[in-house]
Structure formats: structure tokens, C-alpha cells
Specification:
two-stranded antiparallel sheet, four-stranded parallel beta sheet, 266 residues, alpha/beta, binds zinc ion
């Protein structure tokens, strides 16, 4: 009798432990294996393409005129992309860089809470970009990531884009095309925040920051034709554009970007 009672107690403890996960936002107990309860997942700042608020290619926020809504929906590509198309096909963003995404990224990057990376990647998969269905049937699809500069990697101990990329690739059952891009060592000049630099200086800075891996002979190496470049946050878009350019130089035909969150420039 005592043994039965002991087993019942243990079972009930195990059941409580294994099923109830407090939601990271509202602290409600929920049985979802993700970070959040279903209600909080619904409230996430999802990035919406095609609603006229952002460029269909680079995802930069567009200036919305209150006077002419018809004009807004017909002008879905920003002036910069109209002038010169980026080297990537589309920047497929999962979320806007707003609460709670910004707070979690802070916890991961500054407080090094790596346990939040997996749930964030799962949330990206829960809201996949529209184009992903089309891309996932391509036989020659591989994923890669924006590399971290050596000093940052040493300080943080991990590259968030690389970690997201490996979780997404595992779920999509696609290879990670790693070591193709390298981030060069930062110089004192690079420490000026990108947002404070002029566009030309920013582009020059970015060009010096990343390069193709000099240890790979790309003439002999088979490069996947379609590549998804994974990044955590897009701000100016200069980094992803330069990385996409390098991937094309290496032999990729089409580069798509999948980033966790799109930040605004202000
Ligand atoms: Zn919740
Ligand atoms: Zn654009």
C-alpha cells in the first residue's frame, strides 16, 4: 500500500514537472513545448510582407502616406532596391525587432542565455516565410549564416546566427554550408556603431569585415545553387547584402536571407 502511494505521488510530481511550463511572458502554466503559451505566440510582433509597410525585397520599413492607401499598396519596393537590386532575392524576416524579441536577444547576446536560442528558432519555424515552401522542394538548397568577428566569438562564446542556422537546417533536413564566409578581425575604426557612419563608409567597413574563406578553392568546390543566409537581426541590410554578394562570387545562383528580426534605422 505504501509503495502504491509512493508511486502515485512520484507519478503526479513527474506529470506536473513534465507538462507544465510557465509561459516566459505571462507566466501562465501551459503544455506547449515552446517558450510561450498559445495566446502569447499569437501576440508576437510577426513581420508581415505585402501589407505595404515594408519593402518586399529588403524588408526596410516604407514611409506610409495616410492620404493615399492605394498608392502604398502598389509601391511595395523601396527606392534603394528600385535603384539597385540587392544581391539577395528577399530578406525573409520572421519578426519585427520589438518586445519580447528585443528583450530575448538582449538576454542571449549580453547575458549569454543560450537556452533561449532553441525556443527562438522554433518560433521562426512556427511562422515560416511564405517562400520557404517553394524553396524547400529545391534539391540543391543549403543554409549558411553570417559569421561573427573573432573577438566577438571569443567574448560571447557562440555565434547566434550560426546556432539558429543549425537548428533551422536540422528541422528542414538541409545541409549547413559552413566555413564559406569569414569575418575578419575588427580594427579600432570598426568600433564606431554602423548606424552612425555615412552610407559609403558603412559599405566600405562591411566590405572589409567579411570575405570568402581563403582556404577554400571555390573553382573546385561544389557550391549549392540556392542558399539561405541566416542572420539574427537586420538593421541597415549592408551586411547581408555583402555576404550574399560573396556567396554569389563563390558560385551560388540565388541567395535568400532568413533573419529572426528586422530592426528600424532610427
Ligand atoms: Zn503567455
Ligand atoms: Zn528595399
Amino acid at each position: 500500500m505504501k509503495l502504491t502511494s509512493y508511486i502515485c505521488t512520484k507519478y503526479s510530481q513527474w506529470k506536473t514537472f513534465s507538462i507544465q511550463h510557465p509561459c516566459a511572458l505571462c507566466l501562465e502554466d501551459c503544455d506547449a513545448p515552446n517558450l510561450l503559451c498559445p495566446d502569447c505566440i499569437t501576440d508576437l510582433p510577426l513581420f508581415n510582407y505585402g501589407d505595404g509597410s515594408s519593402c518586399l525585397i529588403c524588408a526596410i520599413p516604407l514611409v506610409v502616406s495616410a492620404n493615399s492607401p492605394e498608392e502604398n499598396t502598389s509601391r511595395l519596393i523601396c527606392g534603394q532596391c528600385l535603384k539597385k537590386r540587392p544581391h539577395y532575392m528577399q530578406n525573409m524576416c520572421s519578426f519585427r525587432y520589438e518586445f519580447p524579441i528585443d528583450k530575448w536577444l538582449h538576454k542571449i547576446k549580453i547575458q549569454h542565455q543560450q537556452s533561449l536560442i532553441q525556443p527562438l528558432a522554433k518560433l521562426m519555424l512556427l511562422h515560416p516565410p511564405e517562400l520557404l515552401t517553394e524553396l524547400s522542394v529545391k534539391h540543391d538548397l543549403a543554409l549558411t549564416f553570417v559569421p561573427s568577428p573573432p573577438q566577438q566569438l571569443l567574448k560571447r562564446g557562440f555565434n547566434l546566427a550560426e546556432q539558429l542556422c543549425s537548428i533551422l537546417a536540422r528541422d528542414l533536413q538541409r545541409p549547413v554550408f559552413s566555413n564559406v564566409l569569414v569575418a575578419n578581425r575588427k580594427t579600432a575604426k570598426d568600433l564606431t556603431p554602423q548606424k552612425r557612419l555615412k552610407r559609403e563608409d558603412r559599405l566600405k567597413n562591411i566590405r572589409q569585415k567579411f570575405s570568402l574563406n581563403p582556404r577554400i578553392d571555390f573553382a573546385k568546390h561544389t557550391i549549392p545553387k540556392t542558399v539561405i543566409l541566416v542572420d539574427d537581426v537586420t538593421t541597415t541590410g549592408a551586411t547581408i547584402n555583402h555576404c550574399a554578394q560573396l556567396l554569389k562570387q563563390a558560385g551560388a545562383e540565388q541567395v535568400y536571407v532568413w533573419c529572426l528580426a528586422r530592426a528600424t534605422l532610427d
